[in-house]
Specification:
The complex is a heterodimer of chains A (169) and B (523). Chain A has 169 residues and is of the alpha/beta class. Helix content of chain A is 33%, strand content 15%. Chain A has six helices and six strands. Chain B has two domains: 116 residues, Beta Polymerase, domain 2, CATH 3.30.460; 295 residues, Cytochrome-c3 Hydrogenase, chain B. The chains are: A alpha/beta (169), B alpha+beta (523). The site of iron/sulfur cluster has 13 residues of chain A, from helix 3 and helix 5.
């Protein structure tokens, strides 16, 4: 136990403020949220994540968003295990044909207003996998998307900034 | 030819003609008649060889029928048997009787190439889903992979368990956490698992077919995205297969840089996973601590190699960029600082009785089962298998800089965590050694596509284990077929075995300790 405490003190707080030079490349689509709703989401945003066919690179960086260095919780962003109480659906990958139905069902299970953010170059246009018998390409081909965050994969800081941009516009 | 290959070849030839297959480079390859495919497998099995992979190709481009391949390995030696299949007799002898790993390889061949393994006890689709159209065999040449595929009706037949109090728990494909999609179905009584059946294919993106539509250079980028967490090992393996096929040796300095990156990939993934295993026992403290270390490694990657995961760093003939002068110091300083922290954390791990309680004797994969399945990588090494490509069939620079390979035999979650603790230490040591020995010279060798009909077989030790590629050049000079076998393709079989007798709530923990790739498996 002492060792643990010691290590906690040694580590201190490692969470970093955002670096101004990092900018998320985001493509916004559609109308966006009403101002009032957006204001609320700014302080508390629950995300349901779905991997619709990614190579898992995007997941690695998304997992990192939760680590102490980026600490997404400080912005009120947290990840939920169910779409039923999610404000935002975050989707990675080109949508594989074999995930199409599962993705649609997850989307349908969410309460409105449904914010959908597509994460990574594959989610934007299929990336290296393109469109084929097995890949439907962009997430926008399957569910309505509000914002695309670019990068292969986007870095944790780009992901966080991208999510915030998607909410506040 | 080694003595052991000679003796198995003799035994196989006792039943018919076996000819050297000169078109395959990178492994000793032979052609045998259709009726000898299973016989050869039996001989290999009796002599203690492991079935590494089984795959099929459509040779229409060469005006021929199909071919089925089986690759075997013993003591680091790889041997490939090829059998031709006439177009109008689309079946081949199943090897499942001798090798459990063949179960899925052959279901996959049947689903994607439409060749029927005769004698296979389970012909349900694999990777393909039940709603694929009847005769959609994407790896066949007459299948247009660029068009969307319709949906048919159909239902997957699950294995059923019956009896009083037996119930089913179905999980996925969408999971609670930030992980890849797959479906797990448990039959259990109370909390005790009677059987686990996995079903994948959800992230099938048609990667193997896609290779056939890309040029060689673009293909490297795709290979780096077969499984994002293994981008360096996969792109290195692809490049090595292509280089072998065209008889090119990568630049020496580049092979060192590739290895340095591969060790860094191993370190980063192991650090993340050791923490994640702790997290699944609710010991969040170590999870956060290890994730800080992982983050440090990724940042150094970004500084030195220009990308946090080191994607697109490998190219045909070598590597894309050199290590900058300050990069060496950065990596050495990082290694020192991280190891210091790492050892502190490991002591906390060791001292924690509640971790011990959850990790020991949970999810045991016995050495016998690991061997029978043909498990590879750290999963195999945690279950008593002395197996590591870097040591058994070393490619440059591992031939002159061999790693010390830790092996444990308890096969439980702890063993899978602890082997990786040892591997982090060893990879840092090896990385320092490789940096110190980094030879001068060019970063790439001249790349030329292979000659039509030539193919290359390659194997590297990724962080999960053996990654296998076989690439064939078509008559037009482009890729005719690219076979990929990630470590996950065999190791996923292991988890179904390891979970027997455990309780459902321990499944996430067991699964984490294996952490196999869905994308690398589904392709
Ligand atoms: S954007 Fe890049 S990292 Fe993300 S899923 Fe696609 S290939 Fe993988």
């Amino acid at each position: 136990m002492l060792r643990i405490l010691h290590q906690i003190f040694r580590t201190g707080i490692v969470t970093e403020p955002f670096k101004p030079e990092v900018e998320a490349r985001v493509t916004l689509v559609g109308e966006g949220l009403e101002k009032e709703v957006a204001e609320r989401f700014k302080r508390s945003l629950t995300i349901r994540f779905v991997d619709a066919g990614s190579c898992n690179g995007c997941e690695l960086e998304l997992v990192a968003v939760n680590n102490p260095v980026y600490d997404s919780e400080r912005f009120g962003i947290h990840f939920a295990a169910s779409p039923r109480y999610a404000d935002m659906l975050l989707v990675t990958g080109p949508v594989s044909r074999n995930m199409e139905i599962a993705l649609k069902r997850t989307y349908d299970a969410m309460p409105a207003p449904k914010l959908v953010v597509a994460l990574g170059d594959c989610a934007f246009n299929g990336g290296v996998f393109g469109e084929s018998y097995a890949s439907l390409g962009s997430v926008g081909n399957v569910v309505p998307v509000d914002a695309y965050i670019h990068g292969c994969p986007p870095s944790p800081e780009e992901i966080l900034k991208g999510i915030m941009k998607a909410v506040t516009r | 030819m080694s003595e052991r290959s000679e003796s198995v070849l003799k035994a196989i030839a006792a039943k018919g003609v076996v000819e050297v297959d000169g078109t395959v480079k990178g492994a000793s390859a032979y052609r045998a008649g259709k009726e000898m495919f299973a016989h050869a497998a039996r001989v290999m099995k009796d002599a203690g060889w492991r079935l590494v992979a089984e795959w099929a190709i459509d040779e229409s481009a060469f005006n021929r029928g199909f071919c089925v391949f089986a690759a075997y390995c013993l003591g680091g030696e790889y041997l490939v048997i090829r059998t031709e299949i006439p177009r109008d007799e689309a079946h081949f002898q199943s090897l499942t009787r001798y090798f459990p790993a063949a179960f899925r390889f052959e279901r996959q061949i049947r689903s994607l190439m439409g060749l029927i393994p005769t004698g296979h006890p389970d012909l349900r689709p694999w990777i393909a889903h039940e709603d694929w159209p009847e005769d959609a065999y994407p790896l066949r040449k007459d299948f247009d992979g660029t068009k969307p595929m319709g949906r048919a009706s159909g239902e997957y037949q699950w294995i059923k368990a019956e009896g009083e109090g037996v119930f089913e728990v179905a999980v996925g494909p969408v999971h609670a956490g930030i992980i890849e999609p797959g479906h797990f179905r448990f039959q259990s009584v109370g909390e005790n698992i009677l059987n686990l059946e996995t079903r994948f294919g959800y992230v099938h993106k048609g990667i193997e077919k896609r290779f056939e539509a890309l040029g060689w250079i673009e293909a490297v980028k795709l290979s780096g995205r077969v499984s994002g967490d293994t981008t360096v090992a996969h792109s290195s393996a692809f490049c090595m297969a292509a280089e072998t096929a065209s008889g090119i040796k990568p630049a020496e300095r580049a092979s060192f840089i590739r290895a340095i990156m591969m060790e860094r990939e191993r370190i980063a993934n192991h650090l993340g996973d050791i923490g994640a295993i702790c997290n699944d026992t609710a010991f969040a403290f170590l999870h956060y601590q290890f994730s800080i270390l992982r983050e440090k490694v990724l940042r150094t990657n970004k500084e030195v190699f220009g990308h946090r995961l080191m994607m697109d760093s490998v190219c045909l003939g070598g590597v894309v960029r050199d290590i900058p002068v300050k990069g060496v110091d950065l990596m050495l300083e990082e290694a020192r600082a991280i190891m210091e922290e790492f050892e502190r954390l490991v002591r906390i791990y060791e001292d924690n009785p509640s971790l011990e309680d959850r990790l020991y004797s949970t999810g045991v994969l016995s050495p016998e089962t690991a061997k029978a399945i043909g498990a590879v990588g750290f999963v195999a090494r945690s279950s008593g298998q002395h197996i590591d490509v870097r040591k058994d069939s070393p490619f440059s620079p591992y031939d002159s800089h061999a790693p010390v390979v830790p092996v444990l035999s308890s096969g439980d979650v702890h063993a899978r965590a602890w082997v990786r603790v040892e591997e982090v230490r060893e990879s840092f040591r090896l990385m320092r050694e490789l940096i110190a020995a980094l030879p001068a010279g060019p970063l790439t060798a001249q790349w030329n596509p292979p000659s039509p009909g030539a193919s290359g077989f390659s194997v590297v030790e990724g962080w999960r284990g053996e990654v296998v590629y076989w690439v064939e050049c078509g008559p037009n000079g482009f890729i005719n077929r690219c076979m990929i076998r990630d470590a996950s393709s065999v190791n996923w079989l292991a988890i179904e075995q390891a979970i027997h007798g455990n309780i459902v709530p321990d499944f996430p923990l067991c699964n984490k300790s294996f952490n196999q790739s869905y994308s690398g498996h589904d392709l």
